[in-house]
Amino acid sequence: QVQLVESGGGVVQAGGSLRLSCAASIANFSTYSMAWFRQAAGKEREFVAALSWTGSNTYYGDSVKGRSTISRDNAKATAYLQMDMLKPEDTAVYYCAAGLWGLGYTSQSLYDYWGQGTQVTVSS
Questions:
Q1: 118-123 and 10-13 as β-strands: parallel, antiparallel, unpaired?
Q2: CA 99, CA 39: separation in Å to the nearest integer?
Q3: Which SS3 state, helix, strand or coil, does residue 39 take?
Q4: pLDDT along the chain (124 residues), means of 10
Q5: Residue 12: what are its φ and ψ, rounded to 5°?
Q6: For the chain, give me the number of helices (H) and strands (E)?
Q7: Is residue 45 within 8 Å of residue 35, measured between CB atoms?
Q8: CA-based torsion, 80, 88, 67, 57: positive or negative
Q9: What is the rounded (10 degree) CA torsion for 117, 120, 99, 65?
Q10: Surface-to-core class of residue 29, CB atoms within 10 Å of its CB (0-12 exposed, 13-18 middle, 19+ buried)
């Protein structure tokens, strides 16, 4: 059974950094595109970042571009999201997602598996 488990969330002051991890229990992890989405209270889930299955293409949402870096370690079957210069508006539940043979899509519907999410709270 496929499982994605996020970790690394927490409370951080504005301007600080966090690194989120997504540990995947999934066969052939290297064939999956990995992505991060987030959902703030009362808002729709939005795209944050994606990494193609080849690892050669990355995409970022406008709200985090220049402040975040998505990466993966295929040997550990883990994806990461490094977030710097955090702002209060980054406060949300962050979800990782996996899509087989994905090219790094920004659309949620193109991902096959989802984690349960990890809370990130940025205080001002």
A1: parallel
A2: 19
A3: strand
A4: 96 98 95 97 97 94 97 97 98 96 87 97 96
A5: -140, 150
A6: 0, 11
A7: no
A8: positive
A9: 170
A10: buried
Instruction: Answer yes or no: are the C-beta atoms of 121 and 73 closer than 8 Å.
Output: no
pLDDT in tens, 3-34: 999 999 999 999 999 999 999 999 999 999 99
CA angle at residue 83 from 62 to 21, to 5 degrees? 115
DSSP SS3 for 37: strand
CA 65 to chain centre: 13
Token pair 């702002």: residue: 87
The Cα–Cα gap between 8 and 20 comes to 5
The token pair that represents 92 in the structure block: 């949300």
Token pair for 121 = 């709270």
Tell me, what amino acid is at 6?
E
